[in-house]
Amino acid sequence: MSHVNTHREPHRSRWGRVASWVLLACVIAFIAFCLAWRLDGGRWERVETPSMGTVAPVGSLLWVKPVDFGSLRPGDFITFHPPGAGQTTYSHRVHKINADGTLTTKGVIPAPDPWRLTASDVVGEVRMTWWGMGWLVAMAPVLLIGGLAVAGIRSLLGERWKLPATLVLGSLVLSIAFSIYRPFTNAQQLSFAPDQRGGATATYVGTGLLPIRLEAAGGASVVMNDGQLGTVHVTNADSDHKLRVGLKPAIPTWWWLGLVGICFLPGAYSLVVGLPRDDTEAEPEPA
Q: What residues pair up with 45 in beta bridges, in sequence order?
């Protein structure tokens, strides 16, 4: 005798519909917000260099609006094309207003920029900085193609295999995107120069979403968050008689707890929403 499990179906359908409508409402609201921003002259820029430090780390998404050139003051965060380089875009703070009315700009890490900007060089003022969202924009092609592939494979499977296939293939798509773009742990060398005390001084800046440790061989170390500078004094040469530093992930406890929580999401989904009904169990027995 087979057992037909029908009492969970209304419960699953109700919560499933609620989740679908909430998700759809969020997507529509976000698209409407982006459309209104664009129609008002706004644009987006993805930060690809660490020159703005923790103000706008690598991978940040900048929301830029047109601005009156005459209203700019020192400290304003602007996006511009350097004179004679219209295809290149920078986002730095206004450093100084010159006597001739032009502007000098400066990032957080480097010295003042060598150029003087006029009104035609300025794209706009940065109104919002969304930390980490630029990585999502960079990974969008891989995620979009992967998502379409997962959806196509799902359509070929039976109901009971759709969720497991989505979890496995979705994880694979994310792993590919993370491997290509490395958004979590990375750093960029700014200098590695001889030190008056002997040895050398190495300076790096964190360019990943998670902390990373800069470590001198057999010496001191420092942990850098996204956009933070780190400097270590290197005195001990390795077996090749060279001064080196190492970079290691410094994953915080909350990150591990978050990963464990994500692992429990499928179980939580099955408890709250319920699993798809197995049609083979619902077929009546022949008389």
A: 62
| Token pair for 7 | 């009492």
The helix (H) or strand (E) run that includes residue 196 is none
Q: Give the C-alpha distances (Å, rounded to integers) separating 279 from 5, 130, 284.
A: 10, 45, 10
In terms of Cβ atoms closer than 10 Å to its own Cβ (0-12, 13-18, 19+), residue 120 is: exposed
Least Cα distance to 3 among 287, 284, 193 occurs for: 284
Region 32-50: mean pLDDT is 95
pLDDT digits (tens, 9 = 90+) for 67-85: 999 999 999 999 999 998 8
- Residue 207's nearest CA partner among 232, 185, 181, 175 is 185
- H or E, element range at 207: none
Question: Residues 240-251: what's their mean pLDDT?
Answer: 88
| Residue 49 tokens, joined | 């260099």
DSSP per residue, 24-81: HHHHHHHHHHHHHHHHTT-EEEE--SSTTTTTS-TT-EEEEE---GGG--TT-EEEE-
Q: What pLDDT does residue 287 have?
A: 46
Predicted model pTM? 0.80
* Cα–Cα distance measured from residue 228 to residue 220, given in angstroms and rounded to the nearest whole number: 17
Pick 255 or 180 by higher pLDDT.
180
Tell me, what's the pLDDT at 4? 45
